[in-house]
Amino acid sequence: MPKKKILFINYSLHSGGIEKSLVTILSLFDYDNYDVDLQLFANEGLFLDRVPPQVHLLEPLFPPEYRLNIRQSFPALLKARRPGLAFCRLLVSVAGLRGTMGERLGKMWNVERRFARKARGEYDAAVAFMEGQPIYYCVTKVKSRVKIGFIHGDYEAMGLDRNYDQNYVHKLDSLCTVSESCLTSLRRVFPQDSEKFHVIYNIVSARLLHDLAKQGTGFTDGYDGTRILSIARLSRQKGLDIALPAAARLKQKGIAFRWYIIGVGPEEEKLKAMAQELSLSDCVFFLGERQNPYPYLRQCDIYLQPSRFEGKSIAVDEAMAMCRPILLTAFSTAADQISSGVNGLIVPMTSEGVEHGLETLIAEKKLRESFSEALSGEACSNEDELLKLYGLIERE
Fold this sequence. Notes:
six-stranded parallel beta sheet; 396 residues; alpha/beta; Rossmann fold; 2 domains
């Protein structure tokens, strides 16, 4: 029997939770029965090297020059004799200036769809692994027997545009999300299509994480006090600006700790300036991107995720699989992941809430140990979630 042809679509493979989830799926995929292509808008990102060799990485939809800021990309595209794309990039830049995230995504796609080429060939299934452009491209530019989309967050909290998206959602065969709370949000927004919504949890392989944690060195600063770790895109969503004042007050109280932040993003300079203004340069450290953050995760004493909203945070899932004591702010899906007081703490989404939670966990080593012990008794691997995806792919 010939293999079925599957197309995965994503924007890039930068160091975010969605991208990490995608490469995890690709690393576990059944290549005996499926022939897999990967279509990215931009062939770039920290996780590009983690794409398995069995995957056919296609030519990107847009050239590298397109991803530069408009002052660089416009002349670079003209120099590369791509005047149409230069004009497209200019219009996209204007389209992205105003509106909610959903409104901007829609206006940008209205421009880009005129220039993005159609998928070559036909597929048995196409999987758009991210909201926005990947889903829009899947619906309008791909010939496939089955079309599956993913939305990795709380649709309402993300500021997406129902009026723009509803036509695309209606044309998908299945739309997957990552938690029960996210599923409830989708059903509220698109009740007419609720029968096609499914939950496929972020796939976490504890075996793979522990193997990766043994590679590399992790922390090298010789510090022997309490280490706090966050792995997050440096964006407003992740709430690091909520936690920095909490760290400053802990320092003022004479509480010893070091907080390490792995990630990059649009708020990087702002957050670094905020840390500097709060005199935190000796206890808050921005480590940038790390292709393998798991040695750090294995060695930390507390994992902190102070987000404003999440779908189902893969970084938290991974911290759970590594049995790390976890502190979350009370974003809408936090209780979908941990039971506060049992295997972690959920605190109010305020600087005071984060301060109190950190102070408690730093002071009470036995509480941290009880959280780790509780997590060690849970089944944190869920590789069988792939069976749900196969079921949607095989659906007639």
